[in-house]
Amino acid sequence: MKQVIVTTTINPPTEAIERFDRLRDWDLLVIGDLKTPNDYRLDSGIYMAPSEQEKYDKPLSDAIGWNCIQRRNFGLLIAHDMQADLVAVIDDDNIPLDGWGRDLLVGREAQVNFYRTSAPAFDPIGATNYPPRISAAASPPARLLPQGASHRSGRHSGGFLERRSRH
Fold this sequence. Notes:
Helix content: 10-25%
Order of helices and strands: EHEEHHHEHEE
Distance between the termini: 43 Å
Strand order of the largest sheet: 3-2-1-4
Number of domains: 2
Number of helices: 5
Shape: globular
Structural class: alpha/beta
């Protein structure tokens, strides 16, 4: 199975990138941006410089623009060209845990939790008991409104949905 990791960066190779670059069963594809150092190098992965992106598809490059995470779309296209069976999109500052990318459930049957709700919004973080990552600025409870509702009036026909942080 062809497995490709795709990311974009403006940084020199980070610890995360170096670790992903050492994974034996994955190909790493890093998409540069205008702020990425000109001397960017990987030991085994592929780095696609801005000039190479322009050669690959200038109209797409112009449409995406520069200095944005959407540059990684070039990585998805290159992964397709590489005939990738599986693509992992990562950030260059997320260091992979030991065992990352091994023993995947792709193509295998697995038991999972299923959540059903009639609510207009669903918080998977709260439902799965992962620790909340709500900043102090979010206290008191943040109020989420359906599209088109006014934050000024504080009213709409469906009532408020409240997100509360747990301490």
